[in-house]
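Blinded run. Sample ID left blank on purpose so nobody reads anything into the name before looking at the predicted structure. Input follows.
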Amino acid sequence: MQLHPYLNFNGTCDAAFKFYEKVLGGKITLKLRFGETPMAEQCAPGSQDQIAHVRLESGSMVLLGSDCPPDFFEKAQGTVLSLNVDNIAEAERVFNALKENGTVKMPLEKTFWAIRFAMLTDQFGTPWMINCEKDN
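Blinded prediction complete.
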């Protein structure tokens, strides 16, 4: 059994996943737009280019997402994506990239459980924790 986070967006999924692909060093292995689905004719006007489903893979990590119809979209609440990295340099790189146009809730700093830890919400509204327990 595997658990993969699935992120919902309000029309910004394509931009978000291009950003995550760059920041996380992965590859988008599937991208399906609403206009490419069997339901294309039933989609709301202007939604043809929005993302029906996307898959980003980086190592063993899989991140999924889509744009929601406006009536179904809800901001992320009560969940956080926790990203564990192997060294301080990578923690700093990822933190600096994700904080761009986002909101830092806790800066990247030493804690009693990690040599670096941070919390932020990125420019797309996705909450993240970055955790680096040791510097390999």
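Unblinding after everyone has recorded impressions. The longest strand covers residues 51-58.
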